[in-house]
Structures are given as C-alpha cells and as structure tokens.
C-alpha cells in the first residue's frame, strides 16, 4: 500500500488578511490626502483672514481721518462758503501769486526834491506788489530808476553803501533828496499859500496836498484855508457856518 504525502492547500480563509491590509493601505492614503487638503484649506483661510484684518485696519484709519475733518467742515461759516462758490476759478496756466492789477515800474527820478515823495511812494507800492526780494536786489532796482542828478549821487555813494541794507540806503537817499519846496515844512507852506489868480479847485488841490503832511488839526486847517482865499471868494463863504467840516467848506 502506497502512502501519499499530502500537502496542505491554501484555502480561501488565508486570503482575507492580505485583502484587509491592502484596504487599510488605501484608506490610510485617502486619509493622508484628505488631511493634506484640510491643511491647505486652513492655510488659505488663515491668509484670507489676515488680508481681511489688514483691509479692516485701513478702513478704520480712513474713518478716523474723516471723523477728524468733520469738525473743520462744520465750523465753516456760510459767508465763507458763499465766497468760495462765487470765487472765479483761476486758470492752471496763471501763476497764483500774480497780482490782479500789476503795478507799473516807477518813472525815472532825476533828483528833483518836489518829486521825491511821489517817487518813493511808487517804489514802495511796486515792492509791495512784487515777489519778496533781498536788499541787494531792491537797491539795484532802485538805482536803475535814477537819472541825472540822482544817478550822479548814487554813483558817488555806491562804494560806501555796497552791501548795506535797503533801509540804510533809503535813509541816505532821503537825507539828500527828500526836501520838498526848498526845505520848507508843510506847515510853513500852508501859512504862505494863497489862491491868487487860480481857481478855487486848483487852490484846494494844493491845499489838501500840503494839509495831508502838515499834521495840523481840522480847526487850524479851516482857518488857514479861509486865510488863503481871495477876498471875493471869501465874501461868498461869509454866509457859511464857521464850524463846517473842512471837506464841506472846500466843496
């Protein structure tokens, strides 16, 4: 009798462990992918939240600026707002500092004492309506408007005043030329002023000019005005009240 060696056969019972291990591997891989996806999602949400915080901070800062400006807008008076609405819009090509009515250069000054104060007035107005300049520039422009005797004086005195202030230069100029009517004061000229053959209007014009610089009060000026008139004109004023203001008396 022949004995046969039996080898155990692998049955279906041994297959499930391998299948289970394979299934677990696939499940772990799915979990890993899911975890990675969740991690990416969390990172994106964190970044988005950070950007939102930054935008919120900018909005808050803008609101604070607006809140700061509101009181200034509230205190603006209606008159100022009306003026702003009526103000003409300047052309972009025009300079904002340009004067609306440019002042012409003063006429040349020849050194005549009687014309000195008018020349100084024109120079003062020209400088006021011109851009701010240094003393040297003002002195240079001043001398450029001199001629004849005045220019001769500036030429002679230049070595001693070069580099000085405009105030010092002006003081030296006045010492030489600011002596109208041969050095007589305005009051002295008023005392000597007479109408003569002139019209009342011409006499009144010279009288007003001298009176403006005399420093006299109105009662004294009324007396001097009557004193300078011709006898026939003075007779016409006899019916007028002596207490009339000077302007009414002259008119």
TrEMBL record:
Q: Which residues cross the membrane?
A: none
Q: Which domain of life is it from?
A: Eukaryota
Looking at the Swiss-Prot or TrEMBL record, what is one Pfam family this protein matches? Retrotrans_gag
The segment(s) forming the Retrotransposon gag domain are: 141-230
Q: What protein name does the entry list?
A: Retrotransposon gag domain-containing protein
Give the species: Astyanax mexicanus
């Amino acid at each position: 009798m022949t004995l046969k060696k039996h080898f155990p056969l692998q049955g279906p019972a041994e297959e499930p462990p391998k299948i289970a291990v394979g299934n677990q591997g696939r499940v772990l891989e799915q979990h890993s992918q899911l975890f990675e996806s969740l991690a990416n999602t969390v990172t994106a949400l964190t970044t988005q939240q950070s950007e939102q915080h930054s935008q919120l901070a900018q909005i808050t800062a803008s609101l604070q600026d607006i809140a700061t400006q509101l009181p200034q807008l509230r205190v603006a008076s209606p008159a100022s707002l009306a003026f702003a609405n009526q103000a003409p819009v300047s052309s972009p090509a025009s300079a904002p500092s340009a004067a609306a009515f440019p002042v012409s250069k003063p006429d040349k000054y020849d050194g005549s004492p009687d014309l000195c104060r008018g020349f100084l007035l024109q120079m003062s107005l020209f400088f006021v309506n011109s851009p701010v300049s240094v003393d040297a520039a003002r002195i240079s422009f001043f001398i450029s408007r001199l001629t004849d005797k005045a220019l001769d004086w500036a030429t002679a005195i230049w070595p001693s005043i070069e580099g000085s202030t405009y105030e010092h230069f002006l003081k030296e100029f006045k010492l030489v030329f600011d002596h109208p009517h041969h050095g007589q004061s305005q009051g002295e000229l008023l005392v000597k002023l007479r109408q003569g053959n002139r019209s009342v209007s011409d006499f009144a014009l010279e009288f007003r000019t001298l009176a403006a610089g005399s420093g006299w009060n109105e009662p004294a000026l009324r007396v001097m005005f009557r004193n300078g008139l011709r006898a026939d004109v003075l007779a016409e004023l006899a019916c007028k009240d002596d207490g009339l203001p000077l302007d009414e008396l002259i008119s």
